[in-house]
From TrEMBL:
Entry GO MF terms: copper ion binding; hydroquinone:oxygen oxidoreductase activity; oxidoreductase activity
Residue span(s) of domain Plastocyanin-like: 34-147, 161-309, 414-546
Signal peptide positions (record): 1-25
The name this protein goes by in its record: Laccase
Function comment: Lignin degradation and detoxification of lignin-derived products.
BP GO annotations: lignin catabolic process
Enzyme Commission designation: 1.10.3.2
Cell location: Secreted, Extracellular space, Apoplast
SUPFAM superfamilies registered for this protein in UniProt: Cupredoxins (SSF49503)
Length: 567
């Protein structure tokens, strides 16, 4: 315990003494070869689309402010795109990646080079496919180290370790969602969960492997935790060890200690752990969190935190994970996250009440729509919506249509408030659950100060939603239960040190409030990071118009953009 107290004192000193030194940025080059490979898990062999024959894929490791070129070669059987999750890509939406939003698919036998421009991101992000459900197997870490001559705002770890949490299916991910959408039904829940591609020792297949992290006594380790799961928020813990949260979504947070974390799909968290227990083997473990009527598979997946030269077995009964429906554990954890006022973070710039000139109140819902094809199992199908608009993906990407003034691809009339107000968080058993369809964009001016309130509804199965906005980090300034009250609830906002994140947990039967300045011109996707909800239409597009100068306007497109089918 004395070591931990010294560490906290050291951290407080760094808040005053750390200095950000200017340095030149580097340029890095990566080659991604995307093709089918076979993997055997749960005593079953499955063919998956992966990058460089690995699951998860290769790690990108660079420094703050660098530029990265990734040449993506499609050697598979169908088109896809790749997104650099959490990278703001200033003025460069052309390399952001979501299919039919900023580009068309990279077709089999072709390649496309992404230019990834880092700015103030620091810590852990990730990359993943952004087409149908292909991200389930096409994903990997994007590690952003401090700039040269820049320090961590906490004790320098002796080593770091990437921890990617995944959903495993005994089928091809694309085929799973294609079949479910055709039939109008919900896709199946995961067959297992994985830690860095390993299923651990709880599923009963003797050939399954367990992730092992070897550590030395009294050393400090930085865990870079990424939730790449398809539809599951996850609790994570290491038995008998305290976790020290230091960053979320590539932004430093005020350090706090906890026995577990709760991380949503799309989110990343940097966590310090000190190997200060008796030499031995300790479980690390994950279990899903859910407050929805549509429950995920309740599995515990294990890894091993192993001290060098340790002996002895492991005891699964000692894993201290919260129950899957433990809402208090979830709220207790996320309520501790605060922005860290350190020099390594961008200067805090929360829009004030008097700044806000664009307000959006967005109701999040799962819905139904008529199902009229021969493959439908009933006369209705699952859908999802934002402000009762179920997003329809176009066949020409919206960015190209916007840039070249191509008509008929999208409209600029996304509703800034729900078209119908009702008791969003009440009993909606007999409420009409149908939604309308459209490709309707939110359009704001460069420099607008935006407040966005996300209202989770009880339509359908209800439950929480992890909402991700491309092209931005936003300040998460408020959270509450019930229906948002625009007269009283803003008084509860945290405008002093709200977290700066890119994916927010919007709680069941509640709301969250976000604020940001629209200072990144382009076309930016916003969607639920539960893949089933995104597939059903729980998404929209934010268009930020160009400013009045070259520096506040989109860059022109590269000449090598993938061609859209039929063009």
């Amino acid at each position: 315990m004395g070591f931990h107290r010294d560490m906290v004192s050291w951290f407080v000193g760094v808040l005053f003494l750390s200095t950000l030194l200017l340095c030149s940025a580097d340029v890095h080059y990566y080659e991604f070869f995307v093709r089918e490979s076979n993997f055997t898990k749960l005593c079953n062999t499955t063919t998956l689309l992966v990058v460089n024959d690995s699951y998860p894929g290769p790690e990108i490791r660079v420094h703050k402010g660098d530029t990265v070129f990734v040449n993506v070669h499609n050697q598979g059987n169908y088109g896809f795109t790749i997104h650099w999750h959490g990278v703001k890509q200033p003025r460069n939406p052309w390399s952001d990646g979501p299919e039919y939003i900023t580009q068309c698919p990279i077709q089999p036998g072709t390649n496309f080079t992404h230019e990834i421009i880092l700015s103030d991101e620091i810590g852990t992000l990730w990359w993943h496919a952004h087409s149908d459900w292909t991200r389930g197997s096409v994903n990997g870490a994007f590690i952003i180290l401090p700039a040269e001559n820049e320090t961590y705002p906490f004790p320098t770890p002796n080593a770091d370790q990437t921890i990617i949490l995944q959903s495993w299916y005994n089928e091809d991910y694309k085929q799973i969602i294609d079949d479910a959408l055709a039939a109008g039904v919900a896709p199946p829940t995961a067959d297992a969960y994985a830690i860095n591609g390993h299923l651990g020792d709880t599923y009963g297949c003797p050939s399954d492997t367990i992730f092992l992290m070897e550590v030395d006594s009294e050393k400090i380790y930085l865990l870079r935790i990424i939730n790449a799961a398809m539809n599951e928020e996850q609790f994570f813990t290491i038995t008998n060890h305290t976790l020290i949260v230091v960053a979320q979504d590539a932004s430093y947070v005020r350090m706090f200690t906890t026995d577990y974390i709760m991380i949503s799909p799309g989110q990343t968290m940097d966590v310090l752990v000190i190997a200060n227990q008796n030499v031995g083997q300790y479980y690390m473990a994950i279990r899903p969190f859910s407050d929805s009527a549509a429950q995920p598979s309740e599995f515990i997946t294990t890894g091993v935190f192993q001290y060098t030269n340790s002996e002895g077995g492991l005891n699964a009964s000692l894993i201290p994970l919260p129950a899957m429906n433990d809402t208090d554990a979830m709220l207790n954890f996320i309520s501790q996250i605060r922005y860290a006022n350190v020099s390594q973070n961008p200067t805090i710039n929360v829009p004030a009440d008097t700044d806000i000139n664009r307000r959006l109140y967005i109701a999040i819902a799962t819905n139904t729509m008529p199902c009229n094809t021969s493959e439908c199992v009933s006369d209705s199908r699952f859908a999802a919506s934002l402000n009762n608009v179920s997003f329809v993906s176009p066949r020409i990407d919206i960015l190209q249509a916007y840039y070249r003034n191509i008509t008929g691809v999208f409209t600029q009339d996304f509703p800034f408030t729900p078209p119908v107000f009702y008791d969003f968080t009440g009993n909606l058993t007999d409420f009409n659950t149908e939604a309308g369809e459209g490709t309707r964009a939110i359009v704001v001016n460069y420099g607008d100060a935006v407040e966005m309130v996300l209202q989770t509804t009880q339509l359908g199965a209800g439950g929480s939603h992890p909402i991700h906005l491309h092209g931005f980090s936003f300040y998460w300034v408020g959270i509450g239960t019930g229906n948002f009250n625009n007269e009283t609830d803003p008084s509860t906002y945290n405008l002093v040190d709200p977290p700066l994140i890119n994916t927010v947990h919007s709680p069941a039967a509640g709301w969250v409030a976000l604020r940001f300045f629209a200072n990144n011109p382009g076309v930016w996707y916003m969607h639920c990071h539960f893949e089933r909800h995104s597939s059903w239409g729980m998404s929209t597009v934010l268009i930020v118009r160009n400013g009045t100068t070259t520096e506040t306007s989109m860059r022109p497109p590269p000449s090598t953009m993938p061609r859209c089918p039929g063009t």
